[in-house]
Design a protein that fits this description.
single chain; mainly alpha; three-stranded mixed β-sheet
Length: 280
């Protein structure tokens, strides 16, 4: 086994060995990307030795860089060089998810909490892009990267910055649209509340009309009963009149008979002296 010693991974020899280690893990051995990236970061921060299986070479690291320096070397040599386009594609993918979620929210197919998931995803993707750009090396500090890429880095960075600006503009537009949507939802909620109050008032009015109808039915029943009572009183008064007339007729007849009987009894007694005088 060929053994070499390097001071740390921040040096030129260390960065070259670090690139060989990434190529051996990801390209030659075809290891899983996420575990390989985690192993590369741990090696850059705390590793003391690098073993490359393809060339049977071992690099002994004199001084580990620690979490801060190791993270910087990991971001500059691995993420920025090999996965920058992937991070940028993830940002666009998060923007697509956000637009889909907002469209479904406007259509009323998703709730407000679910639509916030799209915003959280896009925010996480933008945080990843921010981290990558934060650790991206300057033009003067990475001439080797420019030569290996074969294209000028400055136009690419300008294009990347322009893409980021476009994404930020889209996010600003989405934020303003979401704020206006919130205002519309609040206004619609107020309108629904007022409509419910109006509906409650109308329902109470309808209940009052039902009570009035029941009272009207009772009044009609009372009027019918009063009509029957009036007809009964009229019939009773007619019968009383008939009885009174018969009783008066009876008294008149009785008085007439009494007078006739009295006159009949007084007539013979008055004629007796006249007969006696004639006889004399």
């Amino acid at each position: 086994m060929n053994q070499k010693t390097i001071t740390n991974l921040a040096t030129a020899a260390g960065r070259t060995a670090y690139q060989e280690y990434w190529h051996d893990l990801v390209v030659d051995q075809r290891s899983a990307v996420i575990p390989s990236l985690f192993g590369l970061w741990r090696t850059a921060a705390f590793g003391s030795e690098i073993r490359i299986a393809g060339t049977d070479t071992s690099y002994r690291i004199g001084h580990p860089l620690g979490p801060r320096g190791g993270t910087r070397v990991f971001m500059e040599e691995i993420i920025v060089r090999h996965y920058y386009n992937n991070v940028q594609a993830l940002v666009y993918f998060g923007a697509v998810i956000l637009l889909v979620f907002l469209g479904l929210r406007f259509a009323g197919l998703l709730s407000e909490r679910v639509s916030l998931i799209g915003i959280a995803i896009e925010a996480f993707m933008l945080l990843m892009l921010f981290t990558v750009l934060f650790y991206a090396p300057e033009d003067e500090a990475a001439p080797a990267a420019v030569e290996s890429a074969g294209t000028p880095e400055e136009p690419e960075e300008e294009a990347d910055h322009e893409v980021i600006r476009e994404v930020l503009r889209e996010l600003e537009d989405i934020g303003s649209t979401y704020a206006s949507l919130g205002l519309r939802l609040e206004q619609s909620a107020r309108g629904q509340e007022e409509a419910m109050k109006d509906l409650a008032q109308r329902v109470s009015a309808i209940q009052g009309l039902n009570l009035l109808e029941s009272h009207a039915e009772r009044l009609e029943t009372t009027n019918v009963l009063l009509g029957q009572l009036v007809s009964s009183i009229e019939a009773m008064s007619q019968r009383i009149d008939m009885l009174f007339g018969k009783e008066l007729e009876f008294f008149v007849r009785k008085e007439f008979e009494r007078m006739v009987n009295r006159d009949a009894g007084e007539g013979p007694a008055n004629n007796l002296p006249n007969h006696r005088e004639e006889r004399r």
